[in-house]
Amino acid sequence: MNILVTGAGGFIGHHLVKRLKADGNRVIAADLKWPEFEPTAADEFFIGDLRNLEFCQKLTRGGIDEIYQLAADMGGAGFVFTGENDADIMHNSAQINLNILEACRINKIKKIFFSSSACIYPLFNQEDPDNPVCCEDSAYPALPDSEYGWEKLFSERLYKSYERNYGLQVRIARLHNIFGPLGVWQGGREKAPAALCRKVALAENERAIEIWGDGRQSRTFLFIDECVEGIIRLMESDHSEPINIGSEELITIYDLAQMIIQTSGKTLGIECIDGPQGVRGRKSDNTLIREVLSWEPRMPLIEGVKITYQWILQQTSARGL
Predict the structure, then answer these.
(1) What average pLDDT score do residues 67-93 get?
(2) Which residues are tagged catalytic?
(3) pLDDT tens across 94-106, in order?
(4) DSSP SS3 for 179
(5) What are the pLDDT digits (tens) for 263-272?
(6) Given CB 3.0 to 4.6 Å as the disulfide criterion, which of 93, 171, 310, 313 pairs with 72?
């Protein structure tokens, strides 16, 4: 098939391009930037701004069979929860989705995947770090914990409205904390696993690393390969409602830091400091994905942590840090 991947310069998009190519597809890719850590596997890569409707129309001409839309203005807690980037997050991501969908309508694209987020789930269901509620039907009444979550929820409804009114086949995944090699690990947009791996890699033995909050906030984290597998399986299914793609292995941020320290072989302490945290607990509920796809992610967190830590250690060494 001829497949368009938008956001292909980013972490998940880059991995998805590689997988789609390995499966024998012709892949056209687009983003504001090239992939940072290795060359793209795409047959064609267009650098441009998806906030521009004309650019989106150009990309969707010429026999595109499917689109995977992963482009968004995003980052980890240090980017999303400070409030300093809210306008950009809302405007840029919404504009991208509005343009992509309108281009699909104009050029009669038949099928599209949209990467939503676990951040759409209500704040009031995620106050207990031991028992967060994130089943798909708990999204309403809506109260996401960030503007990033509100934009994703709006865009879910936008995609579904184009499905109803214009016959576009839509697949929507609510992704839960994806991590792994070839992702951002410094600069302010990195997420917790990458940030902690960097801190541990750079820490001197017998010292301490810092984590934000009391460390008792909990999350589930999904390794990138399983995320890509889930996305492709969803796209091949006939399920058109939003669905979780994530792990059910819940861990606190403090215990995640301990896991990474153990992986490194170092002896390090952990110091809790003030910082943006998001909800107290978030865990993927995989009941629906097991029912719909007869599949769910099964890779233990420790395996993904070992792979990711070694890659980030190589990155820090290569840069002389």
Answers:
(1) 93
(2) 148
(3) 999 999 999 999 9
(4) strand
(5) 999 999 999 9
(6) 93
Give φ, ψ of 104 to 5 degrees.
-60, -40
Cα first-last separation, the chain: 43
**pLDDT for 54:** 98
DSSP label at 281? B
pLDDT digits (tens, 9 = 90+) for 206-229: 999 999 999 999 999 999 999 999
Q: Cβ neighbours of residue 265 under 8 Å, at least 6 residues apart? A: none
Q: What pTM did the predictor assign?
A: 0.96
SS (H, E, C) 212-252: ECCCCCEECCEEHHHHHHHHHHHHHCCCCCCEEECCCCCEE
291 vs 268: CA distance, rounded Å: 42
Question: What would the two tokens of residue 18 be?
Answer: 């590689």
- And the tokens for 204? 């001197």
Q: Is pLDDT of 78 > 90? A: no
Domains and CATH numbers, the chain: 2-178+222-245 (3.40.50.720), 179-219+249-283+299-313 (3.90.25.10)
Distance CA 97, CA 199 (A): 35
Residues 6+ apart with CB under 8 A from 47: 30, 31, 32, 33, 34
What are phi and psi for residue 317, nearest 5 degrees?
-65, -40
Which structure tokens are listed for 196? 């902690």
Q: How far apart are CA 225 and CA 222, in angstroms?
A: 9
Is 90 exceeded by the pLDDT of residue 303?
yes
What the block records as the tokens of 305 is: 């942590």
Mean pLDDT across 166-193: 96
Kindly write down the DSSP assignment for every residue of 69-118, as one continuous string.
E-------HHHHSSSTTHHHHHHHHHHHHHHHHHHHHHHT--EEEEEEEG
247/64 Cα distance (integer angstroms): 32
